[in-house]
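Morning!

This is the sequence you dropped in the shared folder:
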Amino acid sequence: MAKESKPKKQAKKVSLWTLILTGVISLLIGAGGTYAFMYRTVRDAQTVNASMAKIQAVYQTLYYNYYRKVDATKLEKDAIDGMLKALNDPFSEYMTKSEANSLNNTISGSFVGIGIEVQKDGDYIKVIAPISKTPAAKAGLKAKDVITAIDGKSIKGLALEKVIAKIRGKKGTSVTLTVKRGQTSFTKTVKRASIPVATVYGNLDAKDKTVGYLRVTTFSTNTAKEFKQEVKRLRQKGAKSFIIDVRDNPGGLMTTALQMASMFVKNGKNIMQVQGRDGQVEAYKSSKDYSKGFKITEPTVVLVNGGSASASEIFASALNESANIKLVGTTTYGKGTVQTTQEFKDGTELKLTIDKWLTANGKWINKTGIKPTIKADYPAVASLAAINTKKTYQEGQVSNQIKSLQKMLAYLGYFKGQANGYYGADTKEAVTNFQSANGLATSGQADKQTVVKLETQVATKVTEHDNAYEAGLKALGE
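The structure's back. Tokens below.
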């Protein structure tokens, strides 16, 4: 549960291992429980030792007897990857030193990239969420998009480390991603930039200056502190209620989610629960230790969507179930597990799922997500796949790309016909009118320049008409 935002290494070990692992062990070693725990540890150690003896024997046999020279490092990594693959858990993974450093950098400091949180998805890479206001977000990448190629070359089977290295690069340079969204594939060229460290952005509503809006992009080490500062600043400017936006927030540190949820939930009430492999459940409750005595009692709503994952879901569910705060938007991602990391002497790290986490009321939302109190979303056009700009579309052609073109033109008021994917006379007329209105050559053909202009205008109109935000404002007034 530590992705786009991550504390410095020492802080990470304390916040995660101490909070999560020690808490679970304390459930096992209680009055009368010490002997049973020690017996199981010895018994399990014997089983592990027997298994490792076989693995070591196979390793030595391969290393010394295979007819060609064996790369010991690759053999070791592939063996570990094989064990993790048997877990069938995309959130448990072995990271090389450079991959671990990359993860640390993305969470604890600024870095050059495009601003997406990704995970391994079979042979390819899946987007958990783009970070707000980054090149990835501006390019229209969305949660659950699958990246299949980079700069025209397939990434099938490539390690996550290598994929991340390909996506990153020098500031100002561009990377072209081949993306699969549903059944549609398209390319997006994104310019790399410095990704900001700040994780909380706040402002007053443009019309109602008593409503404070806070956008939380990730749950990193300093997010709770940033959040507190923004709330104080908005209060000083006149905020009497708040809209908290965790849409497309891929999560981060469990500790930070607990700290922020405690600002809203009364002390002593559940924030979340954690269930270990033995089935025992431990509740995490709101307390002064988490909130440092800072409480937010003003009317509040929380905006969520399919890109709200992990720590975002802990935060949102706690406010909903323990503080009766409404959630507005669409169903969240559904990541109901907790991970921790173990660092080895060579700088590599093992990220492992160690627990389920349950909501304050004991629900496990894994793969199902959290349903909002009030459903509200961007218009359907916002979910359309980007149009392939390497092609020019013209009269007589038929394709799903043309269907998307028609829907975008209709959204802007240029196309009145049926969006069926056929580039007929009515589509040509709509394209010509759009080109004329925007100072483009009136060819009636949807070339790259026309498509880019069209998508930009659609994106601008969509963001100017945020249905979930408007629903949140309405809910505050009820």
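Headline: The two ends are 35 Å apart (CA to CA).

More detail when I'm at my desk.
O.
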